[in-house]
Amino acid sequence: DTAVSQTPKYLVTQMGNDKSIKCEQNLGHDTMYWYKQDSKKFLKIMFSYNNKELIINETVPNRFSPKSPDKAHLNLHINSLELGDSAVYFCASSHPQTGETRGTGELFFGEGSRLTVL
Amino acid sequence: KQEVTQIPAALSVPEGENLVLNCSFTDSAIYNLQWFRQDPGKGLTSLLLIQSSQREQTSGRLNASLDKSSGRSTLYIAASQPGDSATYLCARFNFGNEKLTFGTGTRLTIIP
Predict the structure, then answer these.
(1) d(CA A89, CA B85)
(2) Cα separation of A107 and A103, whole Å?
(3) pLDDT tens-digit readout, B8-42
(4) Which residues 8-47 on chain A approach chain B with CB closer than 8 angstroms?
(5) How are beta strands B4-7 and A4-7 bridged, if at all?
(6) What rounded mean pLDDT belongs to chain A?
(7) B3 near A CB under 8 A
(8) Minimum Cα–Cα distance from B97: chain A residue
(9) Is B49 on the interface with A (CB under 8 A)?
(10) CA B107 – CA A50 distance, rounded (Å)
C-alpha cells in the first residue's frame, strides 16, 4: 500500500518539450513538497504546498509550475525542458508539527522520477 | 554556504563493527532533525525523527541523538551488516520557513 507515489518513474524526452510528473499521497497529510536531486546527489527543495496553497517557491525558473488539485495531489509541470533539468525529482508529504492538524512533522518521500533531457 | 554538513562523505567499515555518522548545522532556529537512507537509484526511507523537544530516538540497531547547543546530530549504527550499505542523509526542518534542508550525505559501505 504505497504512501507517496509518483509517476512516471522514468522520463526521457527531447529539449524544448513540455512534460508533467504526478504525485499522490494516501497518508492524509496536509503538506506536500517537490525536491530536486542533482547529479551530485544533493537534494534541494523546489516547492511546498499546504492544503492546496503554495507555501514555498524556492527560486525555481517559472518554466516549472506546480499544481495541487486537492491536498492529496501535487503535480509538477515543466515547460521548454532544458538539458540542466535532467535530475531525479522527489515528491514528499508531511503532517506539520504545528497548526490545527498536528502531527510529528516527519516527511515521507516517493520513489523519485528520473528525468533525462536529451 | 552549506547549512547542513555531513562528515565523512564516505565510510567503509567491516561487518559487525559499530559506527557513527555525523551531521552539523549552522543555524540555531527551532527545528526537527530527520535521518534518511537512500539506496542507489531509490527513494528516501525515513529512519528516525527527533522532534524539537527531544534529544534522541532509537529504532532497532539505530540510535540518533541531537545536541542543539553544539548544532550536531549523530547516527549510531550497532553491529553493522552488509544490508546497511547505503547513503545516509540528515535533514533539518526549520519551523520558521518550513523547509527541510538536507546535508550532503555519507556513503556507507559495510564490507562482508
Answers:
(1) 23
(2) 11
(3) 999 999 999 999 999 998 876 668 899 999 998 88
(4) 31, 33, 41-45
(5) unpaired
(6) 89
(7) no
(8) A56
(9) yes
(10) 32
Contact assessment for residue B102 and residue B89, using Cβ atoms and an 8 Å cutoff: yes
Cα separation, B103 vs A107, whole angstroms: 15
Q: Are A35 and A98 within 8 A, CB to CB?
A: no
Grid coordinates belonging to B3: 547549512
Residue reference for cell 536529451: A118
C-alpha cell at A76: 509538477
Going by their DSSP bridges, the two strands A64-70 and B56-59 should be labelled as unpaired
Q: For residue range B37-90, what is the model confidence (pLDDT) as tens digits?
A: 999 888 899 999 998 888 999 999 999 999 888 889 999 999 999 999 999 999
Pair B70, B15: CB distance under 8 Å: no
Find, in chain A, the residue whose alpha carbon is nearest to that of B106.
A41
Q: What is the DSSP letter of B72?
A: E
CA gap A86, A117 in Å, rounded: 5
State the best of A41, A49, A56, A104 to mutate against chain B, taking most chain B CBs within 10 Å: A41
Confidence of residue A6 (pLDDT cuts 50, 70, 90): very high
Query: Is the CB of B5 inside 8 Å of chain A's CB atoms?
Result: no
Query: Is A78 a residue whose pLDDT tops 90?
Result: yes
